[in-house]
C-alpha cells in the first residue's frame, strides 16, 4: 500500500515537471502561451468594439472624391500621360508636379486599378497602392525606426521580445517592402530628408532593401533561417514610385528626377472649379444655380477649396431650412473664412490705342494675361524720355555660389524694342516722350514681353489700335527677330481662357497640335510679321506704312 502512494506521488511530480519544461520551451521559442484574459482587458476590447460600430456620416469631401478617371476634372492631359507611364508592360517611376487639391493622389490610385486590367501589365490584383506622406516620415539615424525603408530592432531595445532575449536582431519591413510589385505613392516627395532620399535612390536601383546590425552574425546558429535570409539577401522592394510635389522641378534632387518621368498637373480654372462646385452641391442634396457655383469657384484656388466652400454653404442653408444655396450663403462663407475673390482675367474686346495683352507664366502650369499700356508724345528732336513703370529694374542671380546683379531682362526688352524700331522701321524713339506701364501692382520680369511692348509702342506712335481680342508673347532682338520663350502652353491656355481669339507666338515655339485649339495661333519670326498680324495688314504691305500713317 505504501509503495502505491509513492508511485502515484512520483508520477504527479513527473507530470508537473513536464508541464514546467513545456512552458519554458514555449517562452524560449516565442510560441504563444495560453492564458486567461483578465476581466479588465476583456472590457476594454468590448469598449473598442462598440466604438468601431459607431461612425459619423461621410463628409462631402469624401463623397465628391473621384471613383473613376472620368470624374477627375481638368486633368485629361496629365492622366493620359500617367496612364502611358504606368499601364504598359514596362511601367516607369513618375514625378507629378502641381498645386494641392487637383487630383494627383486620386489619379495615381485609379490608374493603378486600370493597369491591373491590362493583360501585359506586371501589376495584378495583389499589387497594392501604398501611400505615405514624406512630411511625416520620421526616422532614426541609428536605424531604430524607419517607416519608409524599414528598420532593425536590435536586442538591446525595449520590447525586443523572445528573440531579443536570445540576442537576435529583428528586421522590420517598411513601406518600400509593403509596396512590392505595386505602387509606392510618396506625397510631397520634395520634403523628404536628403538622407532618406539617398537611401531611397539605392532601393530604386537594387529593387531590394538591405539591413545592417552589429548584433547579426551569419555564424550564429540561434538566429532563425528567415532572418539570415533577410540580412544576406535583403527584403524585396520592386515597386514603381509615384512622387507628388507642389514644388518646382528645380527644387528636387537631380538624381531622383533623372530616374523618373516628370508629369505636370495644371491648376484648375474657373470653368473646372464651377463644375466641381455643381457636382459637390448635387451630391450633398442641395440645389445651386450655375452663377452661384461660379461664384464659389471665384473664391477657390483648388478643387478641395471649392468643395469646402460648398459644404459650409450647405450647412448654412440647412440651418435656415432651405435646400438651395443662395448668393448670400457663399458670400458669408467667403467673408467668414477669409477667402479672397479671384480676379478673372479678361481681354477687352474693344480695340484701344496703346493697349495690348501680353502673356506671362506665374507658376508651374499657370499662365496669366498682362495688360500693357503705352503713350507716346512728340518731343524735341533727340531729347525724348523713356519711362517704364511696373517692371523689375534689377535682378539678383546666384550662380555657383556667386551673386550677380544685372538690369532686369524686362527693362532691357524695352530698349531692344527701341533699337528694333530704329533698325527695321527707321523710327528714332528719342523723338518721343514714351511711357510704358504694367497695371496691377505685380512687377513684371522676363524678356518675353518684347513683342507685346513693340505692338503697344507702335500703336501709341501711330495712334492706330491693334486688332481686338489679340494676345502675344515673344522675346525681341535689336535686329527685329522674334526669339522663342518658355511656358508657351501655359500662356496660350491663359490667353484662351481670358477671351483671346488670335494669339501671336514665336515661330520656333509653334507646334502642329496648336491648330486644334479654340483660338488662331499665329507664328511669327520677326517684328514685321508681328505688325502685319497685330494691325491686320496684308502680307505684301510694308510695315513702314503703319509708321507713316500717323
Question: Could you explain how this protein is built, in words?
Answer:
With 550 residues, this protein is of the alpha/beta class. The strands form six sheets. The chain has a seven-stranded mixed sheet with strand order 12-15-11-10-16-19-20. Strands 2-5-8-1-9 form a five-stranded parallel sheet. Strands 3-4 form a two-stranded antiparallel ribbon. It has helices at residues 2-29, 39-53, 60-63, 76-86, 104-116, 161-165, 175-178, 194-206, 225-233, 254-258, 270-283, 290-298, 303-319, 327-336, 409-425, 450-462, 488-497, 527-534, 544-548; strands at 94-97, 129-133, 150-153, 170-173, 183-187, 208-209, 235-236, 240-245, 261-264, 355-363, 366-378, 386-389, 394-399, 402-407, 432-437, 470-472, 475-476, 482-483, 502-506, 520-524.
CATH class of the largest domain: Alpha Beta
Contiguous helical run count: 19
Biggest β-sheet strands, sense, barrel = 7 strands, mixed
For the record, give the distance between the C-alpha atoms at the N and C termini, rounded to a whole number.
Answer: 140 Å
Share of helix among residues? Answer: 25-40%
What percentage of amino acids are in beta strands? Answer: 15-25%
Radius of gyration: 34 Å
CATH homologous superfamily assignment of the largest domain = P-loop containing nucleotide triphosphate hydrolases
Helix-and-strand structural type: alpha/beta
Poorly predicted sequence stretches spanning 5 or more consecutive residues: 539-543
Mean pLDDT: 85
Choose one word for the global shape. Answer: elongated
In CATH, the architecture of the largest domain is 3-Layer(aba) Sandwich
Count of distinct strands: 20
**Count of discrete domains:** 3
CATH topology of the largest domain: Rossmann fold
Amino acid at each position: 500500500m505504501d509503495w502505491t502512494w509513492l508511485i502515484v506521488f512520483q508520477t504527479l511530480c513527473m507530470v508537473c515537471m513536464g508541464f514546467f519544461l513545456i512552458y519554458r520551451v514555449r517562452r524560449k521559442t516565442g510560441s504563444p502561451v495560453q492564458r486567461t484574459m483578465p476581466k479588465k482587458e476583456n472590457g476594454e476590447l468590448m469598449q473598442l468594439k462598440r466604438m468601431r460600430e459607431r461612425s459619423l456620416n461621410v463628409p462631402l469631401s469624401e463623397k465628391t472624391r473621384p471613383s473613376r478617371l472620368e470624374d477627375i476634372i481638368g486633368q485629361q492631359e496629365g492622366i493620359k500621360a500617367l496612364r502611358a507611364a504606368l499601364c504598359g508592360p514596362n511601367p516607369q517611376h513618375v514625378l507629378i508636379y502641381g498645386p494641392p487639391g487637383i487630383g494627383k493622389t486620386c489619379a495615381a490610385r485609379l490608374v493603378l486599378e486600370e493597369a491591373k486590367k491590362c493583360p501585359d501589365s506586371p501589376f495584378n490584383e495583389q499589387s497594392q497602392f501604398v501611400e505615405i506622406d514624406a512630411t511625416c516620415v520620421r526616422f532614426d539615424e541609428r536605424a531604430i525606426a524607419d517607416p519608409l525603408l524599414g528598420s532593425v530592432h536590435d536586442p538591446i531595445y525595449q520590447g525586443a521580445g523572445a528573440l531579443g532575449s536570445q540576442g537576435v536582431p529583428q528586421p522590420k519591413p517598411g513601406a518600400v517592402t509593403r509596396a512590392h510589385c505595386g505602387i509606392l505613392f510618396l506625397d510631397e516627395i520634395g520634403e523628404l530628408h536628403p538622407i532618406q532620399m539617398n537611401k531611397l535612390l539605392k532601393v530604386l536601383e537594387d529593387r531590394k532593401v538591405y539591413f545592417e546590425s552589429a548584433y547579426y552574425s551569419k555564424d550564429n546558429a540561434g538566429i532563425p533561417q528567415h532572418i539570415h535570409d533577410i540580412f544576406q539577401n535583403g527584403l524585396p522592394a520592386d515597386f514603381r514610385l509615384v512622387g507628388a510635389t507642389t514644388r518646382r522641378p528645380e527644387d528636387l534632387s537631380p538624381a531622383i528626377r533623372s530616374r523618373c518621368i516628370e508629369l505636370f498637373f495644371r491648376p484648375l480654372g474657373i470653368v473646372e472649379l464651377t463644375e466641381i462646385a455643381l457636382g459637390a452641391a448635387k451630391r450633398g442634396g442641395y440645389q445651386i444655380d450655375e452663377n452661384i457655383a461660379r461664384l464659389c469657384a471665384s473664391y477657390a484656388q483648388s478643387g478641395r477649396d471649392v468643395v469646402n466652400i460648398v459644404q459650409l454653404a450647405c450647412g448654412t442653408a440647412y440651418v435656415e431650412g432651405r435646400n438651395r444655396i443662395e448668393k448670400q450663403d457663399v458670400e458669408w462663407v467667403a467673408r467668414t473664412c477669409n477667402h479672397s475673390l479671384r480676379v478673372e482675367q479678361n481681354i477687352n474686346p474693344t480695340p484701344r490705342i496703346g493697349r495690348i495683352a501680353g502673356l506671362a507664366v506665374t507658376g508651374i502650369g499657370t499662365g496669366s494675361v498682362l495688360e500693357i499700356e503705352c503713350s507716346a508724345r512728340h518731343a524735341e528732336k533727340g531729347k525724348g524720355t523713356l519711362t517704364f513703370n511696373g517692371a523689375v529694374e534689377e535682378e539678383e542671380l546666384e550662380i555657383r555660389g556667386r551673386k550677380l546683379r544685372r538690369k532686369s531682362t524686362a527693362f532691357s526688352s524695352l530698349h531692344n524694342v527701341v533699337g528694333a524700331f530704329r533698325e527695321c522701321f527707321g523710327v528714332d524713339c528719342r523723338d518721343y516722350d514714351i511711357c510704358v506701364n504694367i497695371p496691377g501692382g505685380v512687377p513684371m520680369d522676363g524678356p518675353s514681353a518684347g513683342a507685346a511692348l513693340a505692338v503697344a509702342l507702335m500703336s501709341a506712335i501711330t495712334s492706330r489700335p491693334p486688332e481686338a481680342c489679340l494676345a502675344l508673347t515673344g522675346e525681341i532682338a535689336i535686329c527685329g527677330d522674334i526669339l522663342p520663350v518658355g511656358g508657351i502652353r501655359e500662356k496660350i491656355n491663359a490667353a484662351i481662357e481670358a477671351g483671346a481669339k488670335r494669339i501671336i507666338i514665336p515661330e520656333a515655339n509653334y507646334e502642329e497640335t496648336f491648330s486644334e485649339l479654340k483660338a488662331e495661333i499665329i507664328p511669327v519670326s520677326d517684328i514685321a510679321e508681328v505688325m502685319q498680324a497685330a494691325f491686320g495688314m496684308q502680307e505684301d504691305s510694308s510695315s513702314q506704312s503703319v509708321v507713316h500713317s500717323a
